[in-house]
Write a structure and sequence with these properties.
Number of strands: 16
Oligomer: single chain
Shape: globular
Strand order of the largest sheet: 5-6-7-8-9-10-11-12
Strand content: 15-25%
C-alpha cells in the first residue's frame, strides 16, 4: 500500500438535546455532549470518529475529551494511515485514562483506512455476519409510561427489552411488572449500573422471583471494583450476571475470568477503545464467557461503529445498541441500515458508511 498519510485533523463538539432525560442509578443526562474528530488523508478521504463521554461512569466529559483530541492533532498529522495500530499504541501510552477520546481517534483512523481499502469496517474484524438484532432500553420512568412504551416496542418487533434498576426497589419492581404486562413475550434485561450492594442485589432478585419474574440477564449489580461481591451475587441467583463497568481493559477481562464472577462481559467501545474492545472479545470467548455489546449516549456514527464491530466478530448473545436520537436530529446520515430491531451492514459502503449532514 502506498504511503497515504493524514494531512489534517478537525475537532468539533456535538451537542444535541434529548427528547427525554437519560437516567441511570449513577446520574442523569438531559443532552448529548460529545465530540467529533475528522481526519483527512492526502488522497482526499475523510474518516470520522466520535467520543461520547458519560462522566458518572468514566470520569470524562466534553471538555476533557476536546482537550485530549486537540493535544493529539500535531502527533496525528503526517502519520501513515496504515499504521493505525502503532498510532493507537503511542496515544494510549500517554492518554491511557482518556478511553473515550482514544476511541474517537481509533474510529476516525479505522474509518479512513477502510475507505482507502474500499471495504466495510466489519470486514477488518472478520466480517462474520451481515445482520444483528438489538434490544431497546426503557428508562427509569413511571410504571404507566413503561407499560405504554413496552406495548409499542413489542408491536415494532423488539423481542428483548432492557430497563435500568438500582435506585428505588418498589419503583423498580413496579416498572418491571408493567413492562412484562405490556410485552409478556419479550425477554428482559436488568441493568443496575452498580446500584446495589451484593446482599441488596440478591434480595432484589428474590423479590422478583416472588412476582414470577425471571430476567434473561442481570447487568453490573454491584460496584465495578467489587468482583468478590459480584461473585457472591452470581453464586446466589440463577440469572446470568454481566460485567459492564467492571471491564474497560484486557486486564479487567482477565480478572473477570480469574474470579469467575460473571457469565457475560458487556463490551463498549467508549470504555475500552475499539482495538482493545476486540481483544476483550477474544479473551471472553476463550474463557467461554458470553458476549454483549452496549453503548453510551452516542449518535449513529459511534453506534454504527459498534454495529460493525459486533457484525465483524460475530457471536454476540446480547446486543444493546438502540438509538437515543430522533433520526431527524441526527448530525449524520448513512451507516448500517436500522429496521427495528435489526441492523444490516452493507458490503457496498466502505468504512462505517457515515456521512456528515
Amino acid at each position: 500500500m502506498e504511503q497515504i498519510k493524514i494531512s489534517n485533523v478537525f475537532i468539533e463538539p456535538i451537542n444535541i438535546e434529548l427528547d427525554n432525560p437519560f437516567i441511570i442509578s449513577a446520574g442523569k443526562k438531559d443532552r448529548i455532549e460529545n465530540a467529533l474528530i475528522t481526519v483527512t488523508l492526502n488522497n482526499g478521504i475523510e474518516g470520522y470518529g466520535e467520543a461520547a463521554p458519560l462522566e458518572p461512569l468514566n470520569g470524562e466529559n466534553q471538555a476533557t475529551v476536546m482537550a485530549t483530541l486537540n493535544s493529539c492533532k500535531v502527533f496525528l498529522i503526517g502519520r501513515n494511515i496504515s499504521e493505525y495500530l502503532r498510532i493507537s499504541k503511542a496515544i494510549k501510552s500517554i492518554f491511557w485514562a482518556q478511553a473515550t477520546a482514544r476511541c474517537a481517534i481509533e474510529m476516525a483512523l479505522l474509518d479512513a483506512y477502510c475507505k482507502t481499502l474500499n471495504i466495510p469496517l466489519k470486514n477488518l474484524f472478520g466480517g462474520a455476519v451481515g445482520q444483528i438484532e438489538t434490544d431497546y432500553t426503557i428508562d427509569m420512568t413511571s410504571a404507566a409510561t413503561a407499560k405504554e412504551k413496552s406495548v409499542q416496542l413489542a408491536k415494532s418487533g423488539y423481542r428483548m427489552l432492557k430497563t435500568k434498576v438500582g435506585k428505588n426497589l418498589t419503583e423498580d419492581i413496579d416498572r418491571i411488572l408493567a413492562i412484562k404486562d405490556g410485552a409478556p413475550d419479550c425477554s428482559l434485561i436488568l441493568d443496575a449500573n452498580q446500584g446495589f450492594s451484593p446482599t441488596e442485589a440478591v434480595y432484589f432478585m428474590e423479590e422478583l422471583k416472588k412476582n414470577n419474574i425471571r430476567p434473561l440477564l442481570f447487568e453490573q449489580p454491584v460496584l465495578k471494583t467489587d468482583l468478590l461481591g459480584m461473585r457472591y451475587v452470581k453464586d446466589h441467583i440463577s440469572v446470568p450476571v454481566a460485567a459492564d463497568e467492571s471491564v474497560s481493559t484486557c486486564s479487567d477481562a482477565i480478572n473477570i475470568v480469574r474470579t469467575a464472577c460473571a457469565d457475560v462481559i458487556n463490551i463498549k467501545i467508549m470504555k475500552s477503545g475499539i482495538l482493545e474492545a476486540f481483544d476483550i472479545a477474544i479473551i471472553a470467548r476463550s474463557a467461554n464467557i458470553k458476549l454483549m455489546i452496549g453503548s453510551m449516549l452516542e449518535t449513529k456514527l459511534a453506534l454504527g461503529c459498534s454495529v460493525h464491530l459486533a457484525s465483524g466478530i460475530g457471536g454476540f448473545d446480547f446486543i444493546d445498541l438502540d438509538p437515543h436520537i430522533d433520526p431527524a436530529r441526527e448530525p449524520f446520515s448513512g451507516g448500517p441500515d436500522y429496521n427495528e430491531p435489526v441492523y444490516s451492514v452493507s458490503d457496498l459502503c466502505p468504512g462505517i458508511g457515515i456521512k456528515k449532514r
